[in-house]
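We treat protein structure as text, and this decision shapes the records that our systems exchange. Below, we set out a record of this kind in full and without editing:

***
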Amino acid sequence: MRDWWKQWLINLGWSQSLLLGTLDIVLVLALTYMILVIISERRTLWMVRGFIILMLASALSGRLGLPLLSFVLEKLVIGCAVAMAVALQSEFRRFLEQLGRGEFRQLFQPDRLAIPKSDSVIDEIVEAVKELSKNRIGALLIVETTGPIDERDFSVPGVKLNAEVSKELIQTIFQPKTLLHDGATLIRGSRIVSSGIILPLSGRTASRQLGTRHRAAMGITERVENCICVVVSEETGSISLAERGTLNRPLTIKKLKESLEALLSPTVDREAVAPGLLSFVRRIGGKTLALVSRLLGLPSTASREKK
């Protein structure tokens, strides 16, 4: 058996190098897709993209014979690698935990954040905002869209609640005499995760004319793109919606509901971070299997289906 295997490898010739090269590309693409699945925030993706550009620039400077520039870029790459390991420690921790538990399938499956449709969570939010606006009670709701927010983006994480979303609970939290009414409330899926959250304020010049809640809504949506904020003004009762650092106001109840329904799809998939990459990996994987089958003399899938 061993002699037959050696003879088969010798007979492959150039096909062996082609097969190994194709396998190498497939593994690199699979690893890239796995990293993009783990790292879902666009802000983090820009960080990874910048690191890759820095690595390419370092390699190019070395090839062009620029020793001083190459030396500087190499040191920058090392420093950035350490900084990214610190900044992405939660993502790497999750990756290592899944790898250690043998959950290889989950590494290639995008996390899905189920967002109930308008007849459940969105209705509860809209009804609560309607009552808060009518009574001129200030409120700030953070609603996650494409994945969990890292608590390090908050100035103060707040108090854990883990309660079902309901209009009664939202109104109770923001009553002026409660301990949590001054902070923001975080909604993840159909759960109220925490309340009393203190958010970083936006530093934009235009936002300084706004109240603290509006500036906080703009600040967190500037830092984190996978969330939106609903704000109720304590002075006027007006309703605002913050997305990616932009404040849309004033909104009617009808417009708020339409906006939430448009922004919160029933299922948000991290695969959108790298659209087409998984299908590209599958196509390459299919061609690799076809090549291996042809080299081994095995019937292809298409021929088996014809039979």
Q: What stands out?
A: The domain at 113-268 is CATH 3.40.1700.10 (YojJ-like (1).
